[in-house]
Amino acid sequence: MEKRAVFNSWWLPILFALPQILLILLFFYWPALAVMKWAFTLEPPFGGAAEFVGLTNFDEVFSDPFYWNSVAVSLVFALCGTCFTILVGLVLAIAVDRRLPGSGLFRFLYILPYAIAGPAAGMAFRFILSPERGLMASVNAAFPDFWNPAKYGSHALILVIVIFAWKWAGYTFIFLLAGLQSVPRSLTEAAAMDGAGPIRRAIDIQVPLLAPTLFFLLVIMMTEGFVGSDTFGIVHSTTSGGPNHGTEVMVFRIVDEAFKGLNYSGASAQSIVLIGLIMVFTFIQFRFIEKRVHYK
Amino acid sequence: MIQRTPIADALTYVLMVFGFILLIGPFLVILAGASQTLQQINSVPFHFLPQDRFLENASAAWSRANLGSAMINSLIMACLVTVGKVALSACTAFAIVFFRTPLKHFFFWIVFITLMLPLEVRVVPTYAVAADLFQPFRLLISALTGIEVSVEWNLLNSYAGLTLPLIATATGTFLYRQFFMTLPDELAEAARMDGSGPVRFFVDMLVPLSRTNMLALTTIMFVYGWNQYLWPLLMITDPAYKTTMMSLSALLPSENGLPDWNVTLAGSLIIMAPPLIVVAVLQRWFVRGLVATEK
Amino acid sequence: EKTKFEFWYGLSGDLGERVQDACKKFNDMQADYEIICTSQNGYDATLQNTIAAYRAKKQPAITQIYDAGTLDMMLSGAFVPAKKLMADNGYTIDWTNYFSGIANYYATAAGELNSFPFNSSTAMFYYNVDAFQKAGIDFKPETWEQVEEAARKLKAAGFECPLGFNFDTWAMMEQFSAIHNQPLATKGNGYQGLDAELVFNKTKFVDHVTFFKKMADEKLFVVKTKQLGMDIVPAFTSQTCQMIQTSIADHGTVGKTLPEGVKWEVAMLPVWKGTQRQNSLVGGASLWVMAGRPEAEYKGAAAFLNFLATPEMAQWWSTVTGYIPVTKTGFEGMKANGFYDKAPYKGRELAIASLTYTPTSENTRGIRLGGFTQIRKEASTALEAIFMQNADVQAELDQAAERGNAVLRRFEKTYAGQKLN
Amino acid sequence: MADIDIRAVRKSYGKTQTLHGIDLSFASGEFVVILGPSGCGKSTLLRMIAGLEEITSGEIAISGRVVNRLEPRERGCAMVFQNYALYPHMTVAQNIGYALKVAGVSKSERETRIEETAKIVGLSEYLARKPAALSGGQRQRVAMARAIIREPQVFLFDEPLSNLDAKLRVTMRAEIRKLHQRLSATSIFVTHDQIEAMTLADKLVVMNKGHVEQVGQPLDIYHRPASTFVASFIGAPAMNLFNTRVEVETASVLFGGAQVPIDPVLAASLRGRDVTIGIRPEQCAVSADGRGVPATIDFIEELGSGRVVHAEIDGLPFASVIGEHMSVRPGDRVGLELPPSQLHVFDRDSGRRIDIEINSSFPQQVAGVSQLAIVH
Amino acid sequence: MADIDIRAVRKSYGKTQTLHGIDLSFASGEFVVILGPSGCGKSTLLRMIAGLEEITSGEIAISGRVVNRLEPRERGCAMVFQNYALYPHMTVAQNIGYALKVAGVSKSERETRIEETAKIVGLSEYLARKPAALSGGQRQRVAMARAIIREPQVFLFDEPLSNLDAKLRVTMRAEIRKLHQRLSATSIFVTHDQIEAMTLADKLVVMNKGHVEQVGQPLDIYHRPASTFVASFIGAPAMNLFNTRVEVETASVLFGGAQVPIDPVLAASLRGRDVTIGIRPEQCAVSADGRGVPATIDFIEELGSGRVVHAEIDGLPFASVIGEHMSVRPGDRVGLELPPSQLHVFDRDSGRRIDIEINSSFPQQVAGVSQLAIVH
Ligand SMILES: Nc1ncnc2c1ncn2[C@@H]1O[C@H](COP(=O)(O)OP(=O)(O)OP(=O)(O)O)[C@@H](O)[C@H]1O
Ligand SMILES: Nc1ncnc2c1ncn2[C@@H]1O[C@H](COP(=O)(O)OP(=O)(O)OP(=O)(O)O)[C@@H](O)[C@H]1O
Ligand SMILES: O=P(O)(O)OC[C@H](O)CO
Ligand SMILES: [Mg+2]
Ligand SMILES: [Mg+2]
After folding, report:
1. From the Swiss-Prot or TrEMBL record, what is one GO molecular function term (chains D, E) (predicted)?
2. Any bridge partners for residue C120, and if so which?
């Protein structure tokens, strides 16, 4: 989409865009170049001359079962996290959209978890869902080992997904509520006249009309799940990737490999794969944002 | 409103209360835990009622994690990120939307590709850039002219280092662009007819008109800035620049010590408070700003 | 004007505060230098931050690097050798005064120290004497057979966690291998070349893990980790577990934390019956002086290191922590004034005894493997899989060794052409 | 088909009352138009009948059954919305058939009925399209079809034509009328366009500020507006109104310095009362020779088919419709003749119409109108 | 004040040409209305004059100076936009005064002029309000004031009334007209509403699909439309048009089975040619006794001030305006009389008007127009 009204100057736009473009070149494109370089050499931890090794780093990455494990974990994390956030957000948005007395207060409250940093939430949830304390202790007393994220990778993965979903549900909620409210009221009214009850209206009219918002959120949340800053924060502060790589998402593995394992090259190779993956998402999203799934 | 059915209304309330428990419940548990004594918090089953020890726990946490300076650092960082982002992205979006120049698409893409590539995936080399900001320029100069310059600018352990790389992303630009696109063409045309040039239009019209968006962006960026975790963790080694997120681990009960989660939770509550307040206060504009542009 | 210089260390909590005390003492006693001491919260973080800072040319003058990071540092070329530093700045140090077991770990093949041994430790066996009495155990746990028997009795007496352990490989794998004279890797645990290969999956260590696994299955040995809510030391001090193996460094903490009146003791790590016990490995960390700082800072650094090496400071340090004195004179002095005879310090001399039990062999001199942090992580992941996910012992250890070898090969390639000196 | 009774219905949003007690009843099969300015509560009333808005107090009965607490689907009404409210994600066929689908009608029957209905509104060829691919008029037809297919007892229309352009509006007006003749369900049609109201209504309800101002047949309302509000709202250009006082002696009112004669019987009954007098622009003649009320011509609008003379009397605007043949120019001083039989008299305070002989005067007036129309 | 010359102006967006060579010239002080259906290029032309749109080829001159390459502010034009384009964050006073502020006029002078201008448009009491707190008409006035204060040589209006409701539109129409009389700057007013066009224009330009169809005085265009397009676009209800062929022998055309006589001179010159005949609804009479073209009455619209009879002839719709007195009902078979002097004849292929005696026929027609106001 283009604006009809524009100003004619060739240097002003450059001047206006320059500060950010410069920052982006410096902190985005230049580092991206370095990642490229490292991915093809063996970068010594303390710096110094590095040997060109071709695709060896990639070979190593791809032949490492734990790498694929991290891909799988990331996928599960992003997919489940996305589904839960959107599902919770959707259900709550539909409920609040009914505008019953008091729903304004709920709307206000639901957005709050968005403010919380992933790591802080992680720490709190470590306490809240700790197997030997509170609620879960009681459950575990009745069914031993029913819940033990320190022991079972699957439990730990559930834990981090729950934290992710908790933090982001409020965010999707807001978008979905906005989406719902921009569905013309007369459409739901028309459906009501056509004999549809509230649930039927939600399924037949509201949700299909939310498709653009849903898709938008799907992409946003998937990206967030794969590379979002909270993803790393949550994993790092709650499970540190464990137990036994059970929650080792791709970003965590990259950071861990680089800084703990002092393997900058391997980490760079992984970064590049991840960047490629995200580029695909970006592409999809741009296609989508520019050409919304509109019915008009 | 469509004539209501009592059953649907009841179900709605059930869902909303369920959502409340799900989303706000954790806060309540934290609040309860943060106000209990060591014995209370470690008792099984857990008591969900808040007690009166919050201030003691909070002050213990405050001194344990040296939260005073961390809070100030986080505040500075969050504010710088917010201000920088709000200002720069408005400028870039203006350049992208309101001019017809061949560079427009170049700018657009160069900025928007970064939208989906957060710091986390390029953190290692970004660290190197932050350590030696002028390296690219030096290389450029020596490649072009053969002259070796030895200027260096190290951003590690500085507020500039904490914030600049975070400002170099596209979220805000994107938000502004979407907003600018929704402004009627006639607005700029009317301004042009009134004799206003582009800069004047930017200052007189766009800036005041995008107030809602600025507040939305302010919310997002404050939360984003305050909650930064990995970047400070890597680039700050000087405790004078420590942010609250870095203090989190210091808040955990020490490995060999008492499981005083009450202090931990009180501390985490303090750390959560500023972004929480910002979101609570600005949420109306936050929602409006997002919604107006997203739709 | 005072010359300021930085010192980064990895110790945290109680031990971290003792480091701060040492810094304060140094700053108070002289007027030329000011040392700024910063905890990086953990050994691995310190190594990581040091590297990052070095790349950014913002490295501290002195940094505390744990045993596992020794080779990474040695090949980096990013430090000033200890001996050179002291000589340059006009200090004469009697290098032979260091316990050879300790010095070996941080010295070149020629025996020259690259870094200053600072907080040295070794792993010990802690047990709750009260609990032993209650369970009617009348022997000291010197062999693993005895540990098993004690565990059964404790269990029978109603103790839920006779022995607590975690997946830290230092005690369970490295120290175990040393005292049983088992290699971790070929080439003398790496001392003879970068082409060493891990072999811990082919030694007695495998049997040892299998034994632990059996004990764990019988609930005699219990996993205690931070993630599970309580690590082994708090498990011991809260009397949840009655036996643990951990660093002598924790001796001070344990003494302070256990309730008044509870009787406990340390012993050397148990061996398998019939094993010829070897000396244990030195653990802890040493202080490295980083290259690339202004000359003036080195003067200060040298002064500080010299200050730490004074007999009074060495003694103070060993007293307030559980770390052992690193010099022979220091140890003799403390022994002479009866330090080790009474509680709460009684038993710490056993650490020295363990370290110096025999002359060092190929397998007990130390570990000289690149990327050892990563190798430890592979091994501990294997243990985690074995004990938490019931994975097969041999298979997991084989995999860990294989992955560790990949780390070694990459290290070898990265430093291709460099020789171990 | 159903009759509708609205009894003392009120509506409040929070504290502000929007409808102040509406009493109306519509016969089965009637085409009722509710007319009123924006914000007067037309839509609110319609939506209360539909069940889309709660009734604050009072009762609405459809076919004798009180529906206050019934859900929309239980009331047997179908509604056509101003913006059509088509489901954008469904095809035309799906839009039309949605009500049947909800009702659980079998697929085959549904298809037959969709086709039948589409034929009625002339959409048979567009069944597979999405609403986005339709023109305004076609969308409007889909909305109608969606209402028709349910065979409702009551049709509700909320300004269904106001989104169409002028030309299409005329066409669709005719089609709605035809459709009503064909289906003869009770229809309630809300609009603020007086032409629509006049041309469509069997019964016209004029509302203002939450009150019913007048109910009746369109022509009746046009010729005998019950209040100044109705008088000025219906007819374009709007009826001229001026305030004055009745003088019994001369059986006239004073206006613009001239005495305008009125019905003596009326005058007698109104002695000295403050009144508002109204006259439609097309019923007062402009005389160049100065008969009647003296006026200055302000400007003239040429419509091609006629001219509207905007004059000023005593500083007040006054409009008159004249033919092509008269030559007048802005600034001319002319006389305006106001035939007594064409004058409407309203009470100045209440704005209500004052009539003496309701039954006898009406036919006279009608006759008078036609005469005038012929004169021009 | 300035005259405007538009010479061979074309506009293309990419490959599609939107304006195909426009030649127009407007005298200083003239009120020009550009009328045409949506998408015909009216706004594009206006915006090119304003300088908001580049001119693909051709020239525009204001006061003799070619402005093609001048910035909007240098052209001395002021513009009123359809949606008013008020600055939402500024008060009314700031909106009005913005152009002066940009021009660097001192604060005190600005205030004086803002007050003066506000008085002209009757906004003095609203100066401190934001646009959001104004009604549609008031906003429109602000937009006007903003244009006036600059004392431009040329006023440009792009459908400034189309967002207003019917009543307000009539009022604002009058105000714009008055304002023009007062300021007498050259004004160009774009609309697609024919009533607006007729009532406002000194000079009317009718456009269609990027071409100028006709230029002239409004009444001239009403009475002598140059093409079927103009004929059907101007006048409501629209002119009835039917296709037929001229028979010289009888000097008539065949329509609905009847022979409709036409001017014999015309007939002679058109022998056997395919033509389109047009007649305005208000100029054909309905005769109950069956004279004229036989027709069936479809339905009747009552407007209060008259009636529109919609009839069918040969299956084609045909409208006629009649008075109140005739009693006709849907379904009646009647005759429609088409007076030969009122017939418009167009070439069937090109749609262009065919005239023989241009000068003589015009006054006759004017005299013959019967009067019935159909004012929307
Ligand atoms: N949900 C609501 N809350 C508060 N006031 C409302 C609400 N809906 C309508 N109103 C008010 O009630 C009055 C009547 O509104 P309504 O929509 O019935 O008017 P209307 O006659 O249909 O006008 P229009 O011709 O503009 O559609 C208005 O003053 C409106 O502001
Ligand atoms: N920026 C543009 N790019 C491409 N085509 C355009 C552009 N602006 C206008 N057009 C096309 O030019 C034609 C004329 O547009 P214009 O806006 O002048 O019409 P208009 O007569 O003002 O119509 P309306 O009455 O709807 O405002 C239209 O077909 C339109 O689609
Ligand atoms: O806990 P410490 O200080 O004895 O150190 C133990 C190990 O050597 C760390 O690698
Ligand atoms: Mg309405
Ligand atoms: Mg236009």
Report:
1. ABC-type transporter activity
2. C284, C324
